[in-house]
Records
---
Amino acid sequence: MTSRILSAPARGGVSRRGILQGAAALGAAGLILPYGAKAARAQTRGGTFRIGLGHGSTTDSLDPGLWDNLYVQVFAASRHNQLIEVGADGQLVPEMATSWESADGVTWVFAIRQGVSFHSGRDVTVDDVVASINHHRGDDATSAIKTLLSAITDVRADGQNVVITLEAANADLPYLMTDYHIPIMPAVDGRIDPASTDGVGPYIVESYEPGVQASLTRNSNYWKENRAWFDRVEILSILDPAARLNALITGEVHLIDQVDPATIGMLEGRNVARILSIPANAHYVFPMDARAAPFNDNNVRLALKYALDRQAMVDTILGGHGAVSNDNPIGPANRYFFAEMEPKGYDPDRARYHLQQAGLESLDVTLKAADAAFSGAVDAASMFSENARAAGINITVDRVPNDGYWDNVWMKEPFVASYWGGRAVEDHMFTTAYASGADWNDSFWSNERFDELLVAARSEVDESLRREMYHEMQQIVSYEGSVVIPMYNNFVMAVANGVGTPEQIGSNWNLDGFRCVERWWMA
Amino acid sequence: MILTRIALGVGLLFVVSLVIFWATELLPGDLATQLLGQSATPETVAALRAQLGLNDPAPVRYWAWLTGALTGDFGVSLANNRPIADLIGARLGNTVFLALYAAALSVPIALTLGILSALWRNSIFDRMANAGALGAISLPEFFIAYILVLWLAQTGFFPSMVRINPTTTFGDRLYMTFLPALTLTLVVTAHMMRMTRAAIINLMASPYIEMARLKGLSPLRIVLRHALPNALAPIINVVALNLAYLITGVVVVEVVFVYPGLGQLMVDAVSNRDIAVVQAIALIFAAAYIGLNLIADVLSTITNPRLMHRR
């Protein structure tokens, strides 16, 4: 056992951090003797890793531009690599790009890793990388990230480098390239085949039935040495929460997502699996239409923001697996999170004061909610309604059907429930949902100072100035914005005891940044 | 008589196909705007409409769709461009397998229990069988499924979910799908058993049964040889109805046991507005209902010669 612990960092010894973590694990093993064996990071090869996910549908597509749910995301991360990986600590790690640099933030040069081959056998070329990015650009592109990449004016090959030119400087372009929609795929005549499963990733697809299951075997030519421990991986779609839990208890699967908070206690009593609760940037929101009365008055919005008990919601709706948010879409896992911002407690008197400022005695609004928005949305809306009554605010909760919620209610009705998966980059989150006129600005909010800062911060290279700008933007959204953000929800997953997990689990996306398949092992 | 019945069935199916097509026509938007989604511009929509033949008049499109469906070509899924025949193929096989498995378990059980409880009418056995079957049918399917998982899966006897692929052997298939089949058996048995019992008891009051009894025949022989053949018509009908249910209505059981059948496909297709898939499955379900009822009618006509020569 000891020799394994010692050899683990040596085998994985690419980064200093890995060695430090290994040393920390050794220390822990020495200090806490009875559980030392459990905590040891003895990574071993072999085994079949089966995952049961509450996502996946027969309509899922292999086209990277259309990926939209956790099933396809994890499946993609199992068979593909990207230019840059987000490490478990949130730092950028070179993947198919060995390095990247830019003098002005406008022209970016990515050096492409040489000697890596696709599952089909051919070596990766710079042209493959260019085609993989261009799949999301151009007039005929149907990709979900077409708008996100619209600032790119040119992508070209230059020797063993790929050069990306932007419309205007953006210091976050490398982060943008970590987006899961941009895997490196083989190109023929400058175009990737969107129906192909060929990639350079840790596992090779054996069979795939959309909405049912995918089977993969280990890629013996995988270029990373300290990754991909399992021999085989099976990813199953199990939509029913109870069926998912049963599959874990009976040993059919080793990992499940979206564990119902109500069943966590029962699962812990069984002693077959452990719960991983990862604090993240994902959050639940109640957007208000800032164009429509009464929400066009910031005092009304502030009154609502002081009229809910955030901590009670975290405890009840999330079962404690989350954290209070101060109406801030930037989460604690973000680089420029404004942790020192003055928090808003549950304060009915203050809410009443803001109502009076708005010239109102009482307020009647309707909040439309469905559990499609987030699990527990209807309950959260009811709690909001109860809390707000003390401040003279009358919130009528209108429960609407899940079916068609995103088409007919969200961004159509003035006050609704919704969620955001959180973004690794501040700019990404703000540009998507808070910039004036953005496609998904679901509160239809517009603020001149905010828009100015958003553009300025994008190209600011001075780290402390940039931090200040992002802090001010968070302050503006929190105190003048048109969204109530009560809480950040953790990523909650349950892992069978037989599976080993790293000390630090990635929080950029669910399931270790979608990379559980590549990073975890059979203990 | 039988030929008329078959012709009626085919005609009915034709009408259903018209209704399905017409209902889809009523939906706002068309295939082109659905396919293009957010990136729909007037030019791309026009180009795609021409490509899909959407500019043709409705009767022409209906005819193309119907003839395609008859030859097994349902077109492609709007969501991921896979041929619908591929999507449906394996799942239809799974659904039919589960339906036949459940029928193979439930029909013999239901008939045996029905005959025995008619034979021993008002006995303890009769009351127990009735109470058990009615109890099982009164519980929602998902509840029965969860109870079975708790008793038979969490204790390690059977798997709690079905993981089958084309290479799974027949024996493994039977083992892995036992719990869903058992759940469905518990759901459908009561209906068939009660019908068998009622039909036989109804006949037991007839004069010719009285005659048989007076001749001194054994009760079992009376039921099997004299009552059952005349009771077959209603029994066949109720069996067919339940078989149709087993093919079309088992979404809940599919979800609980993660069984890749047609029901789940239909739910996915509806929630994603994948109209072409919905149309195809609706047509298959309608065909299953009409076909099974047709078979039941034909069989019950054959078992009752009087119906063949009705004037």
---
Amino acid sequence: MSRVEGARKMIEITGLNKWFGPFHVLKDVNLTVRDREIYVVCGPSGSGKSTLIRCINQLEYHQEGDIVVDGVEVEKGGKNQSLIRRNIGMLFQSFNLFPHLTVLENCTLTPMLGLQTPRKEAEETAMRHLERVGIADQARKYPLQLSGGQQQRVAIARALCTRPKIMLFDEPTSALDPEMIKEVLDVMVELAEDGMTMICVTHEMGFARQVADKVVFMDGGEIVESDTPKAFFSNPRYDRTQAFLSHIL
Amino acid sequence: MTVVFEPKPSRPAPSTVVGPAAWLRQNLFKDIPNTLMTILGLYIAVTVVGWVLNWAVFNAVWEAENRRACLDAVGRSGACWPGVAEWLPNMIYGLYPKDQVWRINLGFLALIVWMVPLWLGGVKSKVAIGLSAVMLYPFLASYFFLGGDKGLVWSALIALGLSGLVWAWATALCERATGLSVGEWLGLKVAGATDDLKQKRVRQGAMAALFLAGLGLVSLWSLPEVRTQYWGGLFLTLVISGIGITFSLPAGILLALGRRSKMPVISMLSTLFIELFRSVPLITILFMFNTMLPLFLPEGSSVNQLVRAIVAVCLFAAAYMAEVIRGGLQAIPKGQYEAAASLGLGYWQTTTQVVMPQALKIMIPTIVGNFIGLFKDTTLVSIIGLFDLMNMARAVGEDSDWLGLFIEPFFVVSLIYFAFCFAMSSYSMGLERKLSAGRDR
């Protein structure tokens, strides 16, 4: 039995369909993520993994189906997107830090601007999170002066500063050198252990084995199968999953 | 067995790569064609500078009654400066009454004084001071330059300008001396208040008191009216281009945002405006505004000719600026918008805090290039009969004493334009260096 059996549903997706023009990217996707659960989503490129998590915080709008985030129904066309995004932090493959602001300013921008936190309090919170990801000593530098791994850790701290209940990771380590991948994964593992609800699109199968509650395999816009890491890696049901795993393991 | 890896220390570069001798060899005397070009370039430079110096300084006439006397003395081999000297006040101030010229000087001095804190160290609110100068100085200057009857509204605006100047300097001095803003310092020293709310009240009170004092001063003080017909020369050029430059940047930003807007009506209107004004020469727009606008206005109402010219220049410049800004906006990666959106920032927060600072920084050279172009384009207002610097220079050669004296005044006008444009250009280069320091690898 899962460690979070019966916990509150943080994300509930039912019958999700999305098209990019005539192209059907997501086909009848159903997914339920409970509080403190860690989902790892993998699959070949173009399978709709990123689009799926981008639909959750409305960076992409869906056309059919329902998405409920922490009890709030996501309205189609982004009508309540700011309300939805308030509870969700997101990490990107290309970090997307704001290059004209220092590391600290990157972290305090949203709390001060969007949430009206006084500067002092915002800076203290930011420093606490930077400490946690191990870059407090770089707080006054600009993002482009840091290595890729450090930048991604700043991005994690920046997301945490908005106090999200859910974190979405869109291939956070794909643009990094092997030595830097580990430092980012370590932070993610720590987050997972602290009880953050997470959906990670990643091909770091070691990470999946270590912390995931469920591994989801997607192909052609559908969820092919979804299982606990143990069952998923040792005994995949579909030939498509087996073929994919044989390529990346 | 493990061997410890020791990185080799870096050695200094050999003298064939660095140092002045290496630079000379690599850039000026690399091979035979390169050396020949260097010598040829040097020869041309020396000859041209020699000609100009001979004409403008060594062979020049410095004292004469009229152009005839100059021609008798040196012919055409030297410049005839007395004509320019006699007309110089007109070239700078136009036909502004001589006893009122101090108002122009004081007006521009006020602007310089307002801007000085931008170059002082230890001043934190430079952006606010710069903005205050841009937004409030025109009210103050308008009264210096125009004078005459000031109604209640204009008095209030002038007082706003005056108190803005005082507040800007108070901010600069306070931040330099104590590191606190004026509000914090006054709050602490006068009221002993440490919490934000009380300090805010003290600040607002001080601002209101300053404004009322300014209003009192303004109502006591009056200047005779100098109608815009008498404005001219460099002064007029600076007024038109100054207003054009200050207006074009914010208007251009709004138009560029409008053109990229997802709302079709706004985007269409912005595009229409931009394309309309960009595809018509400035001269045409000036003519249109000058001759056709009065036809459309109701009988009896008239718009000052200078205002017509300024409006035409502003709209033209805004359309061009909009495309420059749009170019900058397009250079911002989509990821920046997505990151801002995922953090929960709204449209205006994203635009003002994330996108615009980056876009403007990228476009500084082009923006300043546009400013320089606008500054020079204002010479076209001479076509509709305004006596700007250029038109004034032409007037020298039409004076009966100095008939035909054209080259010398145009030479001086070129120098003046060069000084202003080069200053703008250097400032933009400095700004670029400062803004990119420590931010790019």
---
Amino acid sequence: MSLKKYIIGFLASIALTLLAYNLVAGEIANGLTLLLLIGGLALAQMVIQLVYFLHLPDEMKPRYKLLSFGFMVVILLIVVVGTLWIMHHLNYNMMEMSPSEKDHYMSSQKDKGF
Amino acid sequence: MKQAAVKFTNYKSSLGFWIYLMTDCLIFASLFATYIVLLPGTAGGPGPKDIFQMPLVLTETLILLTSSFTVGLAMIALSKKNIKQAIWWLAATYILGVAFLTIELFEFGVLVSEGHSWQASAFLSAFFVLVGTHGLHILIGLIWLLVMVIVLLRRGLNSKSSRQLGLFAMYWHFLDLVWIFIFTIVYLMGVAS
């Protein structure tokens, strides 16, 4: 735990936050590229804060904190990805239409909201 | 030998608290999943693009980030047994935390007064629950911080209070970490074209 680490973490976090904000505000990229870019910046900032603020790599062996963090990430991915996957297919399969009609209906309904 | 025993007790309690934080992450994970699923459910009302005031949210983000830094500075002061300096940094953290919460409640107040409350649509319900749960964590953190400052002023620094302050710092850094994802997924991705 040193002052230098906190300053590095703080400055890097501010830089990443402002970069993500300006990517969106300045409309430098768009669509999927933009989403992937700002998602990547958020993950980078998470790693920086885990290292410089929460000192995760400094833990002595056995690394139970790292282990429980990894376990949490696995459950988190199952919950989030699983939910999105299921709910998308549920919306798609609950309609009594032919597949081509469904595609047309889904795209026409996309902007309306339910 | 005594030093090693204290170190082990500290590690045990910090590991226990860490595991609690991991389970808290799972609460947020389910709220994020709910939010993303209900995002198109605007029921003819406003979507994310129509209601978010991005400059305000950026200010909120920078305030919380700075408060995460000041709590780190307080921990450094404590490790040097400089209680007076630590209390100043903890006070700075408290003020920044209150500022963050005030801006968030102001944002909620504007939304409700414009008729976009949590009752208006599925999207708004999910938004208020996700962001509100984080805000509730901040509120609990502020109460905890106030208690810790009072303990520090009245009883000074001992092995118990330094351990508890270490846990508080962990909690506060963790809330900053969750906010990065709220900022990115809810706000930035919400207004991104």
---
Amino acid sequence: MVAVLQRLKGWIQRLRGRNSAIDVVAVKESVDETSSELITIASIWIVILVVGVPWWWATTRVYRASLPFDDIFDLAEEGRLDVSFAIDVTLHTVPGLARDDFALHVSDATKQLMDQNLVSDIPLVYTNGSVPPPHTKLAVSVHFDSADHIGALDEAAADPLDITNSSLVGKYHLYVLNSAENSVGHGDVTIGSGRDIVVYLEDPSDESQVLRYASWILSSIFSEERRSLRRVVSEEDRSTQEHDMIKMLPYAPNYNVIISLINADPNTSLISWDIGSLLEAHVRPLLSSLSSISTFSVQSQVQYHSGATVTPTRQRDSADTSFVLRPSDLRNFINSAEWLLSSAVSADPPINFLLYVPPESQRPLRICDSDDRVVPRNAFLIPRWGGVVVLNPKLDAFGTERTDADDLKTHFETLAEHLRQLLGIQRIELNQAMRPASLTMRATSLGNTDTGITGFEFDRLLRKRIVQNLVNAARTLHSLGTLVQSMPNMVVQDSISVQIKDALRSIKQTQDLLSQTTLPVTLSASRSASLALTSAESAFFDPTMVSKLYFPDEHRLAIYTPFFVPAAVSLFAGSFKILKRYRSRNLSKIKME
Amino acid sequence: MELPLLLFILVPFFLVSTTAGSQLAASQADRFFSSSGHTNNWAVLVDTSRYWFNYRHSANTLSMYRTVKRLGIPDSNIILMLADDVACNPRNDAPGSVFNTHERHRLDLYGENIEVDYRGYEVTVENFIRVLTGRHDPSVPRSKRLLTDDRSNVLVYMTGHGGDEFLKFQDNEEISSWDIADAFEQMWEKRRYHEILFMVDTCQANTLYERFYSPNILSVGSSRKGESSYSYHIDMDLGVHVIDRFTFFNLEVLERVTPGSQYTLADLFSTYDPVPIASHPGIRSELSRPLEVALITDFFGAVQNVEITRDGCAIRGNRTSLSEAATEQGKSEPGHVEAAAKPVNVNLSATHRHPNLDPRVRELKPVAETELVSYRFVGLMMIAGVAIRMAVNIERKQESEARPRMKRA
């Protein structure tokens, strides 16, 4: 430091001396001067090149954490996401049939029928270059139980139906019973509330009968399921009118259920609803049994003095005057300007349920279908939004209009059904249209009155959500990879890389869990698939992932010019001048010599 | 022992069996879904200009806000961005109000029921891109986010000062057509929309949509490249123009649209006349479905899909299974219902049952005849008092008017 200062002092003295004294030494001194100027310029250049340029490079560099691009783009490979679910069916027949080779027969026949159905399946459509929809396989294996069959049915029926028990997922029971003994018709099929199906045959020991019925029933149920799995993953559903897919809410780990009582005219009617116990009785069991897939928080509110936006049509029958809402009216029913239905408290997607009490001047208000017939439930569903029930209070003994508990009970049953449809729970039906004429059959699907969801339905929903989450996670990762590669200006933080790796790991874990032969892993597979989706989404929607997208080179030039041009001009001009002088000095030196 | 029990279980199965098939067949006729396949509608309405003299851009945006709200899009599905608060500008001689006609007090666009999501300095290119791409800080509330899915139709309306392939934000930054195109592509990649209607009213607006390359986007602009978009009315009291021509003529048509109407976008676009608009509006529809089948209410309103319900799901509350479930799911205990209901700023929580607790509801009591006389007396006295007060006021006013005149003289 001191040396530098002394050097500077020396320069200044010399500069001063140059003006005052002109003598013989001048030439020699000016040689010195030129070389020192050269040193100055050179040192400035060295500082610029050694310190400045790397500094500028380092500070303006776009930070990009290394991402596992290979793994991400591997997801788009055909067959990379294929999953197979093990379906384990226990057949209960008369002891005479309980042979392993017969079980194998049933198993093979089922597979054959399912392969036949595959031909007429929904085509899988997807955008080129994105993640192709995976093929999902339901591997059905049939075997016999060593225990006596009727005893086992009793046990299954007497058990408290804990459908969410992870050890029961994917394990089904098919009972073949005698129709005459049970005084029912030949070919009656009952799909139970747990994971069991009963089929009644005239002769349950007839091998070929049992084979045909059992294999058709199993193939029908699981073909339908595979079809719904294909609908979930096929990209085609964005343009088609696949109603079940339109209705089903996108997956979220938590939902916010908002139940609102809208009383348009509280002066004439008092609605008392014991919402706590109604929820407890009619909705909570369903929500609790779904808790391994999503959790729900429930809110309720009462709003007064604002009616629906549509005016119902007055209809005069012989008996009484009523008001009707036709389907076209229902489409604009929600008064979104006055009903405060969105909650700012929760960040979870809402599911709205409305109990609407019309003003007295519009009562009784009925909902009609397109054929102008009154719908007894007086309710309708709005896909991906919620459900609406119109409630007409009755006059009580004191002349006040009230609703009784029975009315509300019916309405909450409707509400539970709405909830089932919005969450994508499909009623298990046998596709009678596909049934060969040689099989006489009458099928009943029994709901579960304890929890509102049967074991079959729960498993189907679980598998649907696993496949959906897996594909969505892969698609999200894939679009993120494409995005990062196509935008070189985008900063990619380390946290993004961590989340992507987490997501990839969860995808792998899900597949590993599903490929295991032991059954009770489906629930943990569902958990890791949902984790994969959450990590992939949080990486994709990370707030740091927004850069100024379009930043062309002329913009860059416009930013750097005012900074660097003034400095660069004097620097270049100075270097030029000195080099020139140095060269002429050298020339003159040569001449003098 | 087995047989009676079996019968007991299976007989109810048969009682239910008869109805199931017919219900399945009937349900097909109960669905009334939109032909476009969307289930929800969203609107992003952006005014990008600051300063009082850009009053008309705020008014444009607010007019669109009123229109989509009238046609049924709820506030929770509208992202309203206003770059300046003209309603509360000191130069606004109708404070707290914004009008779009020179006939004052016809329709206050600002009013009492308005939810501005991004205001003033919050309206930036970055925030606009964040809204479209969904990349927000975790603390950003739901109401400020565009929470669309693959079944959402989105109306994006922008107005401000623009040029060839850019739109100016806040007088200090600009968004280019590439930025918007890329943001839409990111939305498409992440399945964040079903269809987009992009409408923009600015100078050289048609250049803004030229770069779009994602499917299902329909674009409308107010003026060609090299053309300006002009304003329409001027309000002499405010001293500023109150609306732009393109938006004005759109609103003329949209005012006639009702929530259930069957007008298509082709009907709307056929009304565009370059002479009164004073520029050539452009339409780009090759990325989307034909205009003749796209209803105006597919984008400007929220006509919902409905399905009539015939079925219920009966749940017999089973005590034992419930208690098991409760331990399993501690998160949503029954007590949670009431606790969660409290923070909702809507009138009442679950415990609040009687309507008379609502401040807006008054109980009507019969009034006795004697009371009525005294009420009448009080009323008369009050009217008399007011009359005296007014008389005194008029007198004073005359005096005070007389005084300055004398001073000036």
